[in-house]
């Protein structure tokens, strides 16, 4: 009863939703349209919305215009994967400690972690550049992986902690009573139970790692073969003219990996990420 | 009876045995992450502070005391940058919150298709910002972007309008792009919070004849207030730090019109290799961010207490 809308209200809601979605999706739609147009028609004046010569030509030409394109996409996936693996290694024990144990400076140290969220890399770029240079990591994959991990650890701990808190304590206590060591309990009792949570947090970290590469790449890496996609895309601008249609095609191809993962897992992801907004 | 007694002794024994090594074990577990953060975030942060007192370039460093800060205080350009940054933040965050609230309300409405709408809202949140900005670069293009094209065919402008070429329009265009990036997250958090509001509150109000608008104002808003406050803080931090959006769209131009504090810092330090002066700016950013985080935390506490969610 309460949720029933009149026809007019329904129409109003759909109308408003449409406007909202147009705002959100317009750039993607435009990118897609541009990727379909032959280059010479992109610059047609006056502006023309519909062309009769749409084609997917750009999607095959782009590999020739920027020969390293495949490499860039691979680099993006590789960097994001490494960041995810390393981040998980750091956050699993830490999140468990915050979820279950009581130790000195627990809240203070958690606050320090979360404080890291306040900075983006941009504030720390100068000294970070020197730190990476000292360690000899500039212009390697590690130059993009290491800072990536640091900036995902806080969020990761936060998300995983709330998952682990939901696992019933009794099982651990039972294992403990049976004489299992702490490490054993963590490895053999808690982790298997936490697999769904680990997947959600892992995917969230991966998406974050995939998204944050640009700044570290343009600042810490000058080696073209190591560049991730968001930085590599700007190679379409340059030389003599900008092959916009191919750049759009490459951009859309480049977001495919995350979009696929995301679409499969979106329900769990959103629930996991927004968990803090509902409970407490 | 015996059961209870037994389980409670078990529990105490579990607890006492546990506390023996718990302190050590806890730090053992968070240690690696802590060390990593110390190396990659804390040390560089300390370095930033040190460098801010130096005249540092590629060649070397020389102690100059507060000179870098003094220069900033005296610079009119820097004052303008600060004002611009806060204006940018205020405008963008307000728009994100308003749009997020409207969006969440719409997506929360019980109409067919809402599951699909929810998925469609998310892409800007998920994809790399740099890639989204390529789409916006295209949209804002005067000659072949759809925005300028539509404006021309409607007769609003005579010729092509380059959104990013004029001081005013470039600034507001960057705001819109930033709002686009941030709105999905805000929307989804608000939506999750709205779904957590107990239904009986609405039902009771409905039975009493309260209108939808009244229910929204008097139930939804107060109930999700803590989330609104924390989202404002998060958005404010993101927007303040927002670098890629501006860098890709305008690199801070035209003539500095979109140069926020973070862009100014990057330009000074990384593009012009003035590490000392860049660091002074970075320190000011840290101080500003820290200050309003504290203010917000204070408010958040107040709000939580005021709405007595007793949920802690």
Automatic annotation (TrEMBL), chain A:
Subcellular location per the Swiss-Prot or TrEMBL entry: Cell membrane
Transmembrane segments: 12-36, 72-98, 110-129, 141-160, 189-211, 247-265
Organism domain of life: Bacteria
UniProt KW Membrane keyword: yes
Cellular component per GO, a single term: plasma membrane
Species for this entry: Cognatiyoonia sediminum
Keyword annotations: Cell membrane, Membrane, Transmembrane, Transmembrane helix, Transport
Ranges where the ABC transmembrane type-1 domain occurs: 73-265
GO biological process, one term: transmembrane transport
Claim: Transmembrane helix is one of the keywords in the record: yes
Protein name in the entry: Carbohydrate ABC transporter membrane protein 2, CUT1 family
Record's bilayer topology term: Multi-pass membrane protein
Pfam families in the record: BPD_transp_1
Family according to the record: Belongs to the binding-protein-dependent transport system permease family.
Major localization listed first in the record, in broad terms: membrane
Gene3D superfamilies: MetI-like
From TrEMBL, chain B:
Transmembrane is among the record's keywords: yes
PROSITE patterns named among the record's database cross-references: ABC_TM1 (PS50928)
InterPro entries found in the cross-reference section: MetI-like, MetI-like_sf
Keywords: Cell membrane, Membrane, Transmembrane, Transmembrane helix, Transport
Major localisation: membrane
Gene Ontology terms describing biological process: transmembrane transport
Domain ABC transmembrane type-1: 82-296
Subcellular location: Cell membrane
Membrane disposition: Multi-pass membrane protein
Species of the source: Cognatiyoonia sediminum
Similarity annotation: Belongs to the binding-protein-dependent transport system permease family.
Organism phylogeny: Bacteria, Pseudomonadati, Pseudomonadota, Alphaproteobacteria, Rhodobacterales
Glycosyltransferase recorded as keyword: no
UniProt protein name: Carbohydrate ABC transporter membrane protein 1, CUT1 family
CDD domains: TM_PBP2
Cellular component, GO annotation: plasma membrane
TM stretches of this protein: 24-46, 86-107, 119-139, 170-192, 224-249, 280-299
One Pfam family from the record: BPD_transp_1
């Amino acid at each position: 009863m309460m949720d029933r809308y009149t026809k007019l209200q329904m129409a109003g809601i759909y109308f408003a939703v449409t406007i909202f979605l147009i705002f959100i999706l317009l750039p993607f739609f435009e990118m897609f349209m541009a990727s379909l147009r032959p280059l010479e028609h992109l610059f047609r004046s006056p502006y023309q919305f519909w062309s009769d010569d749409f084609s997917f030509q750009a999607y095959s030409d782009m590999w020739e215009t920027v020969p390293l394109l495949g490499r860039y996409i691979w680099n993006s996936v590789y960097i994001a994967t490494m960041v995810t693996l390393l981040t998980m290694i750091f956050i699993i024990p830490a999140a468990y400690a915050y979820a279950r144990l009581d130790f000195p400076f627990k809240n203070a140290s958690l606050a320090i972690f979360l404080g890291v969220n306040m900075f983006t890399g941009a504030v720390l770029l100068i000294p970070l550049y020197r730190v990476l240079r000292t360690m000899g990591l500039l212009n390697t994959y590690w130059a993009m992986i290491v800072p990536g991990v640091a900036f995902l650890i806080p969020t990761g701990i936060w998300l995983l902690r709330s998952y682990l808190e939901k696992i019933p304590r009794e099982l651990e206590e039972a294992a403990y009573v049976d004489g299992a060591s702490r490490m054993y309990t963590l490895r053999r009792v808690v982790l298997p139970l936490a697999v769904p949570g680990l997947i959600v947090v892992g995917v969230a970290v991966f998406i974050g790692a995939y998204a944050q590469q640009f700044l570290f790449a343009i600042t810490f890496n000058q080696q073209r073969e190591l560049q991730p996609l968001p930085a590599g895309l700007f190679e379409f601008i340059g030389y003599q003219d900008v092959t916009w249609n191919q750049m759009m095609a490459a951009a859309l191809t480049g977001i495919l990996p995350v979009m696929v993962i995301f679409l499969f897992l979106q329900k769990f992801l959103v629930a996991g990420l927004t968990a803090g907004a509902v409970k407490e | 009876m015996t059961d209870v007694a037994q389980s409670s002794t078990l529990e105490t024994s579990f607890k006492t045995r546990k506390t023996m090594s718990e302190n050590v074990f806890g730090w053992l577990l968070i240690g690696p992450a802590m060390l990593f953060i110390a190396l990659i975030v804390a040390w560089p942060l300390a370095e930033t502070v040190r460098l801010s007192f130096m005249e540092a370039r590629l060649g070397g460093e020389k102690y100059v005391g507060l000179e870098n800060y003094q220069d900033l205080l005296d610079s009119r350009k820097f004052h303008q940058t600060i004002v611009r940054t806060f204006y940018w933040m205020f405008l963008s965050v307000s728009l994100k919150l308003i749009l997020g609230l409207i969006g969440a309300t719409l997506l929360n409405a019980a109409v067919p298709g809402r599951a699909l709408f929810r998925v469609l809202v998310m892409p800007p949140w998920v994809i790399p910002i740099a890639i989204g900005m390529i789409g916006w670069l295209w949209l804002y293009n005067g000659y072949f972007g759809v925005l300028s094209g539509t404006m021309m065919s409607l007769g609003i402008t005579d010729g092509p309008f380059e959104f990013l070429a004029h001081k005013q329009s470039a600034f507001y265009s960057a705001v819109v792009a930033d709002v686009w990036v941030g709105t999905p997250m805000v929307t989804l958090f608000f939506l999750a919070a709205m779904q957590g509001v107990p239904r009986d509150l609405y039902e009771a109000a409905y039975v009493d004849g309260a209108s939808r608008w009244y229910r929204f104002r008097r139930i939804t808003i107060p109930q999700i207030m803590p989330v609104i406050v924390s989202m404002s803080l998060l958005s404010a931090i993101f927007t303040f730090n927002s670098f890629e959006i501006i860098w890709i769209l305008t690199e801070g131009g035209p003539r500095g019109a979109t140069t926020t504090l973070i862009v100014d810092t990057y330009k000074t330090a990384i593009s012009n290799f003035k590490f000392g002066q860049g660091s002074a700016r970075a320190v000011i950013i840290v101080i500003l961010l820290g200050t309003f985080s504290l203010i917000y935390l204070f408010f958040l506490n107040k709000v939580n207490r005021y709405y007595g969610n007793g949920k802690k």
